[in-house]
Design a protein that fits this description.
Helix content is about 30%, strand content about 10%. It has helices at about 1-5, 10-25, 30-80, 105-110, 115-120, 135, 290-300; strands at about 85, 100-105, 155, 160-165, 200-205, 215, 225, 235, 240, 275-280, 285. The termini are far apart.
Length: about 300
């Protein structure tokens, strides 16, 4: 009893410390304020993190295109011409899983460190033959832009984020296209009379921009691996990104009898445009706001039009 009414100095000190400790606790309002501040900081930092990630993906995409142009140059050094955009007996190319349809990407396998995969291809059958089913579903890392991660397309083979340029006009893929890669093409560098630095060779395309929503894969020399610069970059219509022949905003719907002949334009998941590899080996990001005529001229190898800055 005496200890409670007359506490010792040591006990008084302990009681004071316990009282101070109890007073240092957070109230509910203080806790909510702290949570709100943390949420605001995360909201501010998240866009910066996303931008950094996209910048890294864009750099990887640029590196992929650079590797592909080096492979193109190696192929040209070996055979004196660029690979055919698509090998098929007849044209124009129809976007269906019917035909031989060996794409230019197939020809690059042997010069892009994919020799074993190239050797497993049965060239006695077409792309869609059972003997080539395993190859058609094989992933080649350099064919994929890391930003091209989301797709609503129906996939019956592994896809490519990149497509060769058939020409500067929105017409079906055939033997008379004006670009570098088209039906049974064998373009030599001396035929690029507009200059290699003024002619685009490869560009990006979203997997979900396939006409009809079906992507035939990287082995197929259809719109899955071939596009034209006659369509505005990243244009979107009822059939998705990359307006197709006869259905684009700037096309006459009566120009084409069927979507099956569509080549379509270029598109990407990068904001504001897409990346392209030129015939001289350089890689450029081209804005979706580029002048339509200038972009069309870049897809032609010998139209004689002067090309300025782009």
């Amino acid at each position: 009893m005496n200890q409670l009414t007359n506490p010792k100095p040591h006990d008084v000190q302990i009681m004071k410390q316990l009282s101070v400790a109890r007073q240092r606790g957070f109230t509910l309002i203080e806790l909510l304020v702290v949570i709100a501040i943390i949420a605001m900081l995360i909201a501010l930092l998240l866009p910066a993190v996303q931008q950094a990630r996209e910048a890294a993906r864009r750099t990887q995409c640029k590196n992929n295109l650079a590797q592909m142009t080096i492979a193109m140059h190696n192929y040209q050094s070996s055979f004196s011409v660029l690979p055919p955009g698509v090998v098929n007996e007849t044209g124009p190319i129809i976007n269906e899983a019917v035909g031989y349809h060996m794409s230019w990407l197939v020809q690059l396998l042997s010069v892009i460190d994919q020799g074993p995969l190239f050797k497993t291809i049965d060239f006695g059958e077409g792309v869609y033959g059972a003997a080539n089913d395993a190859v058609r579903h094989s992933q080649v890392p350099v064919w994929h832009c890391p930003s091209n991660w989301n797709s609503s397309a129906v996939v019956n083979a592994d896809f490519s984020s990149y497509a060769g340029v058939t020409g500067g006009f929105d017409v079906p893929t055939d033997v008379d296209n004006g670009g570098l890669l088209f039906l049974n093409s064998s373009v030599a560098y001396k035929e690029i009379r507009d200059g290699a630095s003024n002619t685009i060779m490869i560009g990006e395309r979203r997997q979900d921009d396939a006409p009809g929503g079906i992507d035939l894969g990287w082995m197929s020399g259809t719109c899955a691996t071939l596009r034209n610069s006659g369509v505005v970059i990243n244009i979107k219509n009822e059939q998705g990104y990359g307006a197709v022949y006869g259905s684009g905003a700037d096309s006459d719907e009566n120009d084409s009898p069927t979507v099956d002949l569509a080549t379509g334009g270029f598109s990407s998941f990068h904001t504001g445009g897409a990346q392209f590899a030129l015939a001289d080996g350089s890689v450029r990001f081209i804005s979706e706001n580029i002048d339509k005529q200038l972009f069309s001229d870049l897809g032609e190898r010998e139209d004689g039009h002067m090309i300025g800055q782009f």
